[in-house]
């Protein structure tokens, strides 16, 4: 019967892929880079590239997964949700559990020991994800009625109808984690109801349970800041980086120089940066009312690109200051002509 189908039933394709967990595990790569102190100067905290081995033709990747990744790379999505069933809650990143650091006590554990409490790693946007999850769960007709427990086990949401994925069901390579670390999009999983395959007579009630939640969730796209990054001539700057102070996760502008950044109400120090331009910084206020705050940036061109080119021609060595009246060597005269 349909009532016996839990959240995992129907996750696998005929080829044996669980599509939700078939994405590159970028979270583990980020944490490994953090431990080596490579973030953000040598390893980005956003738009992390897909590993080459994942893109190879013989990689164990479903054709549907490849299609979704292409779709996400093509469109600058900002807010997303995947609809699932067999449970009644909202799950948000990280879904991946960060391995606990090695300790002396770990050496005493038996070989078959399993850590029942992996370390939870919150995203830099943890407060925003909680807001988004609560916006859905609180508007659902029955999602926060957890006094009866969860659908199939005890309540894992602390009576709020929301849970971080790694706390509930840790798994690597989820669509939510990939979307957050590879694109601008904040994505959550909406588990619409306990019955994964409701009967036709029950569909109308399921729609009523979730209708207002879906509308409320979509409205959250208008919460935060938005704007356009241009140069001094008014031309848009694509792939400019938007940095929000206190949140160690950046986003990029779209092809038209426009950007959107979902944020909770508050005051933020925001900067826009782009290769070949001087950064611009301003304070942006996010209000409680629905409606994103407009924060535009105009960047002036920087001389650093030309300076780096000159230093590269000089072997990245300090450029000797020319003293009037002091003779120059032939090599120094050649370098001076090249710079000019």
UniProtKB/TrEMBL annotation:
Name the UniProt record assigns to this protein: AEBP1 protein
Example GO BP: protein processing
Keywords, ordered alphabetically: Glycoprotein
Domain of life: Eukaryota
Stored CDD domains: Peptidase_M14NE-CP-C_like
Alphabetical list of Gene3D superfamilies matching this protein: Carboxypeptidase-like, regulatory domain, Zn peptidases
Organism of this sequence: Atrichornis clamosus
A single GO cellular-component term on record: extracellular space
InterPro entries linked: CarboxyPept-like_regulatory (IPR008969), Peptidase_M14 (IPR000834), Peptidase_M14_domain (IPR050753)
SMART domains tied to this protein: Zn_pept
